[in-house]
Amino acid sequence: MSPASLLLPSAQECRMTVTVSASGLGLRYGRTHALDDVSLRLGRGVTGLLGPNGAGKTTLLRVLATAVPADEGAFTVLGHDPATARGRQELRRELGYLPQTPGFHPDFTPFEFVDYVAILKELTDRAARHREVRRVLAEAGLDEVRGKRVKKLSGGMRQRVALAAALVGDPGFLVLDEPTVGLDPEQRMRFREVIARAGEDRTVLLSTHQTEDVAMLCHRVLVMAGGRIRFAGTPAELTARAAGRVWSSTGRDPGAKAGWRTGAGTFRNVGDPPEGADLLEPTLEDGYLLTLDGDPAEVTA
Amino acid sequence: MTALATETRRTTAPAAPGNPRAAVLALALFEARRLLLRLPVLLALAGYAAWIVWRTLQPWDDYPVLQDADRATQGGPLFVGLAALLGANHAVLRSRRRDTERHLGVLVLSQGHRTAAHALSVVPLALLTAAGVAAQFTWEAFKPGAVGTGSAAELVVGPLTVLLFGVLGVLLGRLAPSAVAAPLLVVVFFLLFVGAAFPFAGEESGAAWFAPVVSAAGTHPFPSGLLGRPAGWHALYLAGLALTAALLAVLLSGARTRTVQAALAAALTLTVLGGVVQTSGVPAATTAARQRASVTPEKDQRCVRRGTADYCAFPEWTPRVGDWARVVRRVQALAGGTAHGRRLLVRQRVEARYGLDGDAALAPSTTPYQVTVGTAWGGNRIPEFSTAVAAVLVAGDEKAAGELCDGRMVTVMWLSLAWQSDPEARLRNVRLDDSLTGSAVVLAPTEPLTMTAGQTEVVRTLLDRPSYGVAARVKAHWTELTSPQVTTARAAEILGVHAKVGADRCAE
């Protein structure tokens, strides 16, 4: 068991308070429904957001981060309603946002960049701010490179700078849009550690394509497709959706929705198994695949 | 949970609620530090410092007139201003160029506040320029030969120019968010400065004052009461313009609050007020004072007696009487006859009727034994004044001295130069074409004199000899040497110079 998984908050701990609440969120780009009647409730802890490309994950995160306004619906974050200017400002004071492809100022050092973001978050006391910047840089594992120019850092390091920028000021609501994309396994593990720690006493919404990340980090998971929430529940509940629907065979089963040869030489099939199939233990990914293929009406938000 | 979990608890309170002003100030300091460390700004500051040192070390600047020295601080900051324009514009466009706006746009500090911080970030550079201006002016003021008084309104023009250009860079970033806009504007401004091609540049009044720096200056300093420059109004105009540009940039960034709109209206009012009043021309009282100082300077002057001469000068120049008296004493010491103890009147004169940028020559005085001294001193002005003293001692008055065309010119030039260190170099300085041979025009505070090639040769030969030997002959033959009938050949003969000298022809 990894150190990160040890830090995962229990579902009981996190079910206590609703910190983010949205109802009927809708947003259209031309004729496309990027968000279609999205409602959700989040509490403390890490919530994973899964979905295929174009599902509306990034749009949902951008709406919740107040980067774009929704056409319809309403939401609150930690009691702040972004529909008013004051509420939006208060929400932003509680927000840490890591966009999907964060931009950087290449001539800045990590310290300068995070310090800059800290100022924009209205951390005005210089000494306290610098302490906070050093803290988040240490938390992101950037202690040794904090004086190096960002342009000289690797992609993984830069992603950590962006994470540190999102963490600075100790925000209550952390929005992370595919933070582990492009990272090698070791870097991903470090990210998981940081995100898991962050989720202990904050609300973290983590968009990702990595079901493994969700399995290891999140106490809740949302699955989106076509701008709608297709599933909301615990990772165990999502996994349970595939119970009895994963089986092993010597060849690819023609009735399977998905099937692939495993390292052992047998085929792992997902779908509706034939009579007497050799059933396997389902994973979160199996549940996710079957959810995307399933009926939206099954959503339990 | 483990120790690792304990350290992950939220260690600080969430961002202290709403103190955008403090955040703007913190961001301004952050941006100011980055601006000051940008290469163009560093180069401009280094160039500015070098320019100050070079300027203040010039020998012709040993006797500064402070009401001109204040204006002389205004040119250098223009280039710091251009660097500020580039740097501030670069900073404003940074988020756009690096695509960080998606991230920074959801942070607490609004774009309007960030724009205000960018505008404020130019202030430290303007203050640094102010320190440069103060250093340059103080250096001038503490030179032993300094006279006059400086104007604070003239001194703030340099720093205000830097502030204005920096803020223009911010405004440009909001109006035309393109990376090429600022460099193009800098090229245009640079060509205007270097080519002095600002519309109406150099004029003393009117539209010239819309330019940031109006350095209209002739060759002769004026008493400060005759300047008539609307320096205070111009400073108000520049400050108002900088404030207007900054507030406009903030407004364009989305901060359309009543406070910003009211401040913009106030800044615009100040700009218009300063802009209109500064272009209203030279006040009638100043024009009258210029007329009086040019025609009847004695009404405004103080006179003091030193040795055999009376010195009448505009009040700001009385500390310079000692310098003039040293020259008069040295020239008279070499003269013979009655000229040796002749009572002279040295009167300071200025031609102010044609304005600051007028370059009209002073008419020679017809008053016997009155010598004109100008308002500039140091460098070539010293041998020129020496020549004027010698010419009046020999010819009787300046008008007659200007018409010298005979052997007396040899005596005049020897008296003028023999007491000076490196007299041959001074001879070169005092001749219009910097020559040491042939005929030439010789500069003086009023009308110039002329030397023929023969006179030049004789004078150079005399200057090569020990002055005490020549002085003895000058004193012994003073009457003949200062007679209108003496030819150059005869003067040479009297003074023991064996040279083939033709007939005196002034048109030579």
Summed over residues and divided by their number, the pLDDT of chain B gives a mean of 89
Which structural class is indicated by helix and strand composition of chain B? mainly alpha
Task: Tell me which CATH architecture of the largest domain in chain A applies here.
Answer: 3-Layer(aba) Sandwich
The average pLDDT score of chain A comes to 88
Helicity range of the residues of chain A? Answer: 25-40%
What is the alpha-carbon Rg of chain B in Å?
31 Å
Fraction of residues in β-strands of chain A: 25-35%
**The CATH topology of the largest domain in chain A is what?**
Rossmann fold
Percent in helix of chain B: 40-55%
CATH homologous superfamily of the largest domain in chain A - what is it?
Answer: P-loop containing nucleotide triphosphate hydrolases
The greatest interface between two protein chains, and residues involved on each side, is: A-B, 48 and 38 residues
Outline type of chain A: globular
Largest sheet entry of chain B: 4 strands, mixed
Description:
The complex is a heterodimer of chains A (301) and B (508). With 301 residues, chain A is α/β, with parallel strands linked by helices. Chain A has 3 domains: 1-94 and 176-231, P-loop containing nucleotide triphosphate hydrolases (Rossmann fold, 3-Layer(aba) Sandwich); 101-170, no CATH class; 240-298, no CATH class. In chain A, 33% of the residues lie in helices and 26% in strands. Chain A contains 11 helices and 13 strands. In chain A, the strands form 3 sheets. A 6-stranded mixed beta sheet of chain A has the order 5-6-7-3-8-9, with helices on both faces. A 4-stranded antiparallel beta sheet of chain A has the order 11-12-10-13, with helices on one face. The longest helix of chain A has 14 residues, at 126-139. Mean pLDDT of chain A is 88; it is low at 1-15 and 295-301. With 508 residues, chain B is mainly α. Chain B folds into 2 domains: 20-282, no CATH class; 291-494, no CATH class. Helices cover 54% and strands 5% of the residues of chain B. Chain B is built from 23 helices and 6 strands. Chain B has helices spanning 3-6, 20-36, 39-56, 66-69, 77-97, 101-104, 111-120, 123-141, 152-155, 157-175, 181-194, 231-252, 258-278, 284-295, 321-334, 381-395, 398-402, 408-417, 423-430, 453-464, 467-476, 478-481, 488-494, and strands at 302-306, 309-313, 344-348, 370-373, 440-442, 449-451. In chain B, strand 5 (440-442) and strand 6 form a beta hairpin. In chain B, helix 5 (77-97) packs parallel to helix 10 (157-175) and helix 10 (157-175) packs parallel to helix 12 (231-252). The termini of chain B are far apart. Classes of the chains: A alpha/beta (301), B mainly alpha (508). The A-B interface holds A 3, 6-7, 65-67, 89-90, 92-95, 97-99, 101-106, 115-117, 119-126, 128-129, 132, 135, 139, 162, 165, 169-172, 197-198, 200-202 and B 1-2, 4-5, 8-20, 22-23, 25-27, 30, 94-95, 98-109, 114.
